Amino acid sequence: MKTRNLALAIAVLTVVAVSIMAFSVAGSGINPKPVNVQSAENQPLSPITDFSLNSNFQNTSSGYALVPDNSVYSPSAMISVFISFKPQGDLQGYVRDLYTPSSPYYHQFLTASQIGNRFGLNQNTYNEFVQYFESYGLSVSQSQTRLDLYLTGSVAQFSAAFHTKIQAFRYQYTSNGLWNPLFGNESALPGSISYSQPFFAATGDLMLPSSLEPYISGISGLNGLFAQPDIALPYGMSPSIAYAIANGNNGADGGTTYLASLDNIQNLTYANYTWATAQSVGPVLGFPYDLGNYQFIFPSTMHMLTGAENLWNGQYALRESPDLGQGITVAVIEVGFPIPSDMAQFSQQVFGNANQLPDRLTYIGVGIPSLSEGINDGLVYGWTLETSLDIEYIAAMAPMAHIDVVAVPNPEFSSFDNAYQFIAQYLVNNDPISAIPSGNVIFGPTSGATNITITSNSYGAPEWEAVFEGSPMYVTVEDQLLAQLNAVGVTNFFASGDEGSNGMAASPTMPSQSPYATSVGGGQTTAESNGVEFPVTSTIVNYSFFGLTIPMYVAQATGLASFTYWSYGAGLEGTFKGEVGGGFGESVMEQQPWYEAGVDVYETGALIDPIVSGPAAFNMSVYAFGTWNLFYGGTSFATPITAAEWALIEEQAAMLPSANPRMGNINGLLFEAHNAYNANVPGIVDPFVDMMNIGEGFNYGPMNDYSWYLFNLSISEPSDPVLPGWYATLFNPAGSGWNFLQGLGFINAAAMSKDVIGTVSEEGYALINPAFSVMMVTPSGLSAFTTLTSGQTYTFRIVTSTGAIAGDNYLIDAFSGGSMEQIMPNATGYFNYTPSYTALSFIGNATEYGYFLVSVMNSPVAMPAWAFQQFGVSQPMASGNLVLTVTNPEGVAETGTVEIPMFTTGLTGFYNTYGIGPAEVMLNGQPVASAVVSEISVNVSQFFLIDPTMPVSSYAPGVTVGHFLTDARGNFVFWIDALLAETNGTLLTQVVQLRATYNGLVSNTVTVYIEPQAGDFIPSVNYVPGQYVSDVVDFADMKYVNYVNVSIGSMPGQYVNVSYPPMFFDARANATVSGILNGYVPFNFTVLPPPGQTIMLNMTASGINDLSFSFSFFGFTFIIYDIQHPIVWHYAILISNPGPDPTSSIAASQNGIVSGDLNIAYSSSWLGSGLTGKLQVYGSSGNLIYTFTGSSGNAMINTENLNDGYYYAVYTVQTPTGLSRSSGYGFFVYNDAYNLEKNITDVQKAVSSYSSSGVQASSVSVQLSTISSLMNQYNSSLANLNSLQAQATALYEGGVINASLYNLVQTQISSYKAALQTYHGDIVSLEEQLNSAHANKETGLFGGYSHSLIGLFSGIIAAVIAAIVSIAVIVPRKKDRKQ
């Protein structure tokens, strides 16, 4: 068994890739609510990590190892740490609006302080962080964005501030023959061992006060993760070889001039290049002679190859004014400074003036206190060549642009992250140079230094490695930092890398694949001189490389002969050994932006990389260390060349009426330029040079064309876990449009400027200077738009740049779904359009390409004004059943719960770095491409073993740790933190949930248990709150399990231990084993923790993993032994434990129809403490009348204070663990019920009195009228009571009131009816007596009854009738108040 090795946590993310690059800050999850962070130092500490480093780790398979170096450790050594915070708003959404032409925020770039006000931490919270770290003596550099902090201090101070332990390490590199700048010249020798510069890394947990930790997005600088420049040399070649030595003196021989040095041919005026025969170059590089001649390109050549010459001379410039990049500032972000004398010598050779470049070159050290230290940093980390070439190619391409060398002291990502925020804060708004804090050296001219609009960055790593061998959380942090620069108007160019597709069908480089970066790929440029690529001239320079002389012909470049594929190989054949070529691929995480579309662009729903490309083959050169260095290549050249081209274009933008050169994120604009040319927009020329399908010059060969490219893809299939979406429909990705190796192509600076800016200042003749635009009509007014839905009809309006409404003198060419439609607006500029969508042969989730081309009709000018507006078209809303499945190792596709191993069962000793499967998403039984699969953490708590700087909140339970896209087969991969398995110790099962979304549909959720070893080990759990946890733990295919333990936390007696008896001796394992592979362990735990305390169900098994295998070869049998002993499986599942439900009861002194004093008693009970209760009484309309609190009590209510009608009371109790229970009581208030009964009694007494005293003389007619009125009132009361009865029946049948209340009310109504019936009899009897008296007594109908008694009767009956009527108008209860 491998020893548990926690050193992997620091090393593995960087050592697997040749680039040793990974990202050290990350974050995800929701923004925390503001908390009180006062006195942070006195608060409990919250762990950000829990990591211990084993410094003996080695990873020989990748050539890298991590070794401790105690000799350089010092508590006083100075280090730096970068902390990023979670944005408090939708920063990325704002950046999207910045580049939507019709948006009101279009190009409304923010300052750093405005970013802080919109998206940063509030000032008080930010100050608490500052105060906390300053209290430990650290120097804190603040940012106006309030989204980050940069800390510097000693190792001892950081150890105290983060409550951790910090040690010193180096990386060790065993060379595979490829030179690595970070390890020196000797790293090019195959098999040699070299070491990086020392660095400091945390080897213990990082701790911060609990109130501060939730705000942190990431911490970098304590894990030693490095970036590497994307500069390369051929196999086996180092800078000491590429360092050329002149051979011979100036002179002439037979009409041929021999020059002593390449220094003599560099003047910008001549644009020289050199070339040599294959017979001369072949021995130096070790490749066959028949591969063609070999050109060498110099910085002074590039203006003739890029079209910049036509801007320099004003031919394609505004008002024909020469454009040399004046007024534009470009920043190159580097490690350390170049050597100033090299810059002066380069300037003398290229410009004929040693001061031309130094006079516009500012050295700015971010965390570098002096010029000498900055120069030394570049030398120590092997970055001087990279810095020199970046400056030289920008300087030669844009001879009047200002250049800032923004240098950091080391290649750790904390340093680069700090540089980004440093630029955003101090270097973009022409702020005074004096605002830059002390300790950051500034050398050289300062005019223009604080007006950066472009950055050039040449580093990266495969997205695949960063995501699956590290964490998908890394992607989000780089996106956030680059989005900040976009928000202040900075365009970010990033090299796409030098490893091709990294041996896979699709593996782009990050951060070049960020939507907020413009990725630059690589190809080979071949110059021509008056139409001839390799002219035999009369000027030769002889150069020697280790005793081999290369005679070079000197030729003057007059243009670009070809742009072809850069050398590409897989270490087998091709021009050069090793995997080389411009980086490309299709992202597994980033969705395709709406603008990545066109008639010849792959629209599969996944971000495609690169965007553009440029010169990167091994025919480039750089001046450093006092001489010219040849045979260099890499996208490190293509990136500054492209940045310089854009500087020329920005200078043109500054000449427009808006006078604003800032463009920020230009990706959408680049696609728009390409598409406008394809749409035949008047005056638009092709702004890109396309790659050719076969190599030229030294790159010619059968393995370097499209066939080799496709072969590389085919050898990965079907083993490749993800294929790009185009693979299902297009075999050959070649074409004049976008493809994986060229992107959109090599920018022609003059043509691009003409398309984007134009050659006249007037509006209507360029992409960013339109005279009018199309706005969508919405209920809230006119609105910008980027995406339309197929089949939906929209109303649009043409609006001029001044905001005026256009008329009908326009023609709209509307394109979508592959078809064109011409539309004419009405007199006020309105028109309708219904976009269409052409579905792919497979089901995709991509937006398709659409556009409006609006032009003026009947214009008096020769070329009417126009506006080209690109948009995306999404397919109609999907319908049906979206199903996500993950296939287990037994081949069963699971849709609910699945268990997979980190360990690869089919290959001994190999580990999966992504979720095996296949895992796929299907819609109605068909695979879908570019469905978005969210991976949600359930328990990945041991990620701290991989990255100690990642805040726990970034992968806490419930946090979405990443998004992944399905390919054309519907397949996807997901992160399983598999590098944990390399340590082999007692590891937790990692648990995640997967859920897919596709075009409005949401799939089922699959819970994935990721075991660190082979075999299934999963529980079934039956939990009855407050009583027991029971069921079984099943295991299968676990090799020779000897012992299983099941337990709940540390509860006494809560264990089930099972031992399997030894059955035989395993000689290979040298141990006695049980032979048991499958089994189950039942458990039933009845002693549970108190309510509110989470139940931790632990399962541990130990045994032997025998993964040996045998094979036969020519009759001989071979056995490969792989015995792991002992091997441990461990799994902990968290079970929520709120406890049993509480009880709630309510009772009243009266029920049904009530009156007078009403007493409502309420009570509750629960197993634990902390129970709270609330009794609330509501009126018939739902209004709250009374509130009483407590777990028990009595509520006294006098109904005389209430109106007659229906009321209900609800008593709710809640436990501190979140459980609740309610009980209710409904009643009718009728305050006259008692009076009714009393009045009936009075009537009976009156009748009795009449019988004994006789009738008094009175007016018979009046008395009979009164009797008639009483009878009418009785009939009305009876009708109202019947209506009340009918309403109660309806409420009962409708489920509003329950049977008990209904029956009680019915009984009470019957009682009232009986009373009324008795009263009716009394009235009839009274009438009979009056009639008898009228007949027998002269005194009148009422005989001896007095008028006063008659009045009394009348009053009583009237009151009775009124009371009964009130019953009939009772307001019914609401239906959701059932009793």
From TrEMBL:
Keywords: Calcium, Hydrolase, Membrane, Metal-binding, Protease, Serine protease, Transmembrane, Transmembrane helix, Zymogen. Residues 502-524 are annotated as: Disordered. InterPro entries: Peptidase_S8/S53_dom_sf, Peptidase_S8_Ser-AS, S53_propep, Sedolisin_dom, Tripeptidyl-peptidase_I. Gene3D superfamilies: Peptidase S8/S53 domain. Its cofactor is Ca(2+). GO terms for molecular function: metal ion binding; serine-type endopeptidase activity; tripeptidyl-peptidase activity. It comes from the Archaea. This is Peptidase S53 domain-containing protein. It comes from Thermoplasma acidophilum (strain ATCC 25905 / DSM 1728 / JCM 9062 / NBRC 15155 / AMRC-C165). The lineage of its organism: Archaea, Methanobacteriati, Thermoplasmatota, Thermoplasmata, Thermoplasmatales.
